[in-house]
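S1.2 Input.
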Amino acid sequence: MNRTALVTGASSGIGQATAAALAARGYRVLGTSRHPESLAEGQRAPGVEYLPLDLTDDNSVDALADRLTEVDVLVNNAGESQSGPFEELPADALRRLFQVNVVAPVRLTQLALPGMRKRGYGRVVMVGSMLASFPLAYRSSYVASKAALKGFSNAARHELSPFGVWLTTVEPGSINTGISERRTRYVNPDSPHRPDFETMLSALDRNERDGVPAGRVASTIVQAIEAARPKPRYAVGSNAPLVFALRRILPAGLTEKLIHRRYGLPR
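S1.3 Output.
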């Protein structure tokens, strides 16, 4: 195996599991972390070389330019999870979220594409979210960022596939990675949305605790990477095959009601 893969956010959760899975399959794997020098032994996937990357810093992203020229597989996994009532989301928080979840992954991909194109082979996996397909109240900013990432992937794959470079999006549902503990939350103390917001968060945290393990998502990412012609989207977790099938046949209004019911929200 002479392929080189770079996985962002490779010190925990889906990123760590994906980096480990690729290394075990013979890929040369580069993993990123904001502070790789301070990673504990258990945070390092075996066989992975760790590089520093802060997605909020354009200079940090561009500092990987030279390494990205040798990358055949890029997994844009690192990101931020954000919740809050739409009308109360701070502008600075929105800018940060889109920088981390959209702008930085797009820039990393741009830096990797010339080398992939010249070699006639490349795989770019955007780790999105099933929420981009099934939007949820009080998650509008996160939903929008993941939908934007999927939009870039869906459109750009038509530009790059003639060169042997394929972009795809993997949409996890509820995954047990501990991300609920790191989610940023924005809600005013006297917000009229607070009761429903807290109800939604409780259900979201419960679903994630009961979700499938990160390794399941990693297996799906590897499947997408090694497909001869990767599909535009792979969904995993939260009964993905069933819920996507139901979405195709159920009226949109009924789908919304079912989502609200799953999270204990009024319709």
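S1.4 Remarks. DSSP finds nine helices and eleven strands in the chain.
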